[in-house]
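ingest -> validate -> predict -> emit
validate: passed (alphabet ok, no gaps, 252 aa)
predict: started
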Amino acid sequence: MHIAEGYLPPLHAAAWAVASAPFVIHGGRAVIRQVRDDPGSRLLLGAAGAFTFVLSAIKLPSVSGSSSHPTGTGLGAVLFRPPVMAFLCTVVLLFQALLLAHGGITTLGANVFSMGIVGPWVAYGTWCLLRRFGTSVAIFGAATLADLSTYCMTSLQLAIAYPDATSGFAGAAVKFLSIFAITQIPLAIVEGFLTVLVFRLLRDVARPELIRLGVLRAPWPTTPTPSATTSDSAPTADTAGATGTTTTEVAR
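emit:
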């Protein structure tokens, strides 16, 4: 997913940077608004960023000869919505380019677009569609498809930059998708299961915060039973007889 430094032609690198910039600026404003309106969510916000950083820094060899890694963007997209993840992923990818030599500065815009924009939006759409089937199913689908869609987008970016000499963009897209996207499926599934486990942990330790963010639904308030209401508000025949007072006597 990390397109290496200098791998994209300058015009393509600049175009992806311009395309990503509005999303990143909007995401930065969303982060500021989130922290200002709900200071208690800062820990979860940091956890979402750290989860993305750690998972996307794991570099595993692929059977096709390239390397693959999880993205970790599905969890943050569900917790804080996709605009926030555009900004967080920019910070993550910038640090990885500078400290880990993953990706690059010239290709930052393209990497942000695939991992920080396309992946989170696919994750959030999947979450909204699958939520009726349970949170675990929705989280699994969101994390898995966020990972897979990121690699699909990267494959298309490379196909645009390097079309096949005979079959053009279509042929290059098939080639890059077979290298990156198909081999990414098992890793995307593993990331889905891992994200479910992390979400269940957050559900146990940070349920009020998740309810406040709208990720979990608040429990229904309990209402008094009719029998309890009757016994508390109106005297029964036994109590009326015991006090020697009847409805007729009260009326008189």
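The chain has eleven helices and two strands.
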